[in-house]
Amino acid sequence: MKRRFPTFAIAAAALTLVATSCSLEPSAGNGDAVTVVIGYQSKTINTVTAGTLLRAQGYLEQRLQDVTERTGTKYSVEWQDYDTGAPITAQMVAEKIDIGSMGDYPMLINGSRTQANPRSKTEIVSVTGYNPEGALNMVVVPPNSPATTLGDLAGQKVSASVGSAGHGTLVQALDRAGIDPATGVEVLNQQPQVGSSALESGQVAALSQFVAWPGLLVFQGKAKLLYDGAELHTPTLHGVVAREAYADEHPEVLDAFLRAQLDATRFVQTEPLEASRIVADASGLPQEVVYLYNGPGGTSFDTTLKPGLIGALKNDVPYLKSIGDFADLDVDGFVNDAPLRSAFAADGQDYDTTLASTANPAAVTGTDPVCAAPASDPALAGEVWFDGTGETQPAANPTCLLRAVKQARAEGRTVRAGYVPDAELGTRWFADKAVWVRDGDTFLPFTTGAAADRYLRAHPSGAVVTYDRAVEEVRP
């Protein structure tokens, strides 16, 4: 039976706190401080509200200091950075990490691996970010690759982190393309950075990974996008798992963490460009890449455990069973929204209102100065980021964005980055890396050549043009 996690229980537990977990042995120099160990992935930037941004802003430490001021109990936060969710799970099984953030498939593996031991048993307590269509995972190929569809990868080597969200997308996509995922391609189980090097050196034909790796490689000119995970029309998400034993013993710590995550979520929603700068500085990723995913119209940063996302997790289970030993997991029993509901209430927010909303909490807004029109339609609105400026300029639609770039070039200004939503799937993408189609006076961007081909089959009046040509030909 799930804990109801009432707010008064948090305060009572804080007043009578006794550090009993073996993972809470005081660290050297910490005196009698209660230690909480956080596992996160600095370069998996859809977990930033429970990881990189949260750490950089000190929100958790601030929330725990509030508890200290009320109760006198001191806390020590230990941050551990990993490339994927698998090592975080291993550490949670060993009772050495108390709270961790990871993607959807790794969270399910986490639940499966930890259930046997009451001390290591975990539960999902929040979401960091999600994409309703699945655009957080993508398949990329070298820039000069002749491949235009997944079918072209048949019989070749593909790099992926087995058991990750990126691998799950590959398996599902291959299956839909009529390719046996087990025999149709050779999957090399590699960490993202190893796979990136393998792609660049020609050791593999493609790389299937989670954010921010596909966008990073494309931005760097080391890859082009072959498959957009949004074609699956299946939600992908990242979230937070906590050890139940730790949460039972220290509910005030989990409450502080979730309230700190709400702090970070508000910040990334209201100050996305500054948040992307902070994450870029902390992770080493280019700010342009961070902003691609963390900016308006990118990842939906929403902590609530929506039924549609839980349903997506249930649908992921068959994939996990197909790749190895996966113990049966009651997904409904694995999800616990009581702590998050309590954190919302303590923060003066209405959980059910946020739960019911499916719109991206951060959308492009403002008036397009070039087209003199509001940038209000999330399916069309984009942004232009000019070099040397601390803000972006809204574009009402992709054609207007091209006009802004054309105007900037005429004035000698440099465009640092442009962002547009894919015309078919809505995926936020780099304007200069998109496949552009001209249809009359309208210009349409697509994330992949396959998506552009689907449009052209239905609209033979259109034609593919390069980005530079589109900028040149757009009418002022």
From TrEMBL:
Keywords for the protein's UniProt record, in alphabetical order: Signal
Domain of life per record: Bacteria
InterPro entries tied to this protein: SsuA/THI5
All residue ranges annotated as the SsuA/THI5-like domain in the record: 123-275
Gene3D superfamilies assigned: Periplasmic binding protein-like II (3.40.190.10)
Entry coiled-coil feature ranges: none
Signal peptide: 1-24
Family annotation (Pfam families): NMT1 (PF09084)
PANTHER family: ABC TRANSPORTER SUBSTRATE-BINDING PROTEIN, ALIPHATIC SULFONATES-BINDING PROTEIN-RELATED
Protein name in the entry: NitT/TauT family transport system substrate-binding protein
Species of origin: Rhodococcus koreensis
